[in-house]
Amino acid sequence: MTSEKYEEAKQLFGERVQALRRERGITQGQLAECLDKSIEHVSYIERGERAPSFETILDLAEALEVSVPYLMNVTHQADVSTNFLTELQTPVVSPALVEPVEEPINTSKERRSDLERLQTALEAIQELQSLANEYGINDVFQDNGGKVLQVLIQLGLRISPGREGNDAIDAEKNEYELKTINKLLSRSVTTHHHLNLDILAKYRAVRAWYIAVYEGIVLKAIYKVDPASLEPKFSYWESRILGGMNSIKNPKIPLGLIEKEGELVYPKENEQA
Q: What is the CATH number of the domain that holds 66?
């Protein structure tokens, strides 16, 4: 793609984002919150001054409630590449240029070794699942089940029956909201796919929020957050819903806010390196 076509493609993409946003009655600020970006970042995209990452394109499609192909459709302009994503990817190497592999990468001996390792791992996972069942987690592979189990054990909680909005209970039946975040992939906590007033009421009513911060699969910290500390977010989301949105897709809470307002409950002060 030439420099001129690249710039024109960015411009067309930005105009499409802006048109779809306005059609849905979403402000730049609201879209920025859905993307966990600044308003300036959204403005740059809409003016064609910044090319979004693939992750941002996926988030844009979700926030605007369209498919990625529909979002990328800029075919109404002539002489501009209509496959913007493909143009940005590394060219595919021709099969004729690739040397054939005479031996399979995994030999029979290596495959046997991998099967033995898998069997050993599965036996350990079965024991992990048995433990998870005691805490109300039916599948350690689903919905961060393994991480949730680790957090429950650390906090002395159990999964709430049904998991309708509030994730855990203590021995006195107090309810808590549990969230996990991998800070290698994100700097914000995703709340609910379709946040509405009923779920928002539950968010406000829990005894506390527990946010577990991971680096990959390693638990680094757990913060306890009073719902009152999140009220500015709750009030903003409520105003958007009452303004005619019915529900909000994946509103996020910045990790910085959690670290600022939350109480560090893991590791304990005397356990920190």
A: 1.10.260.40
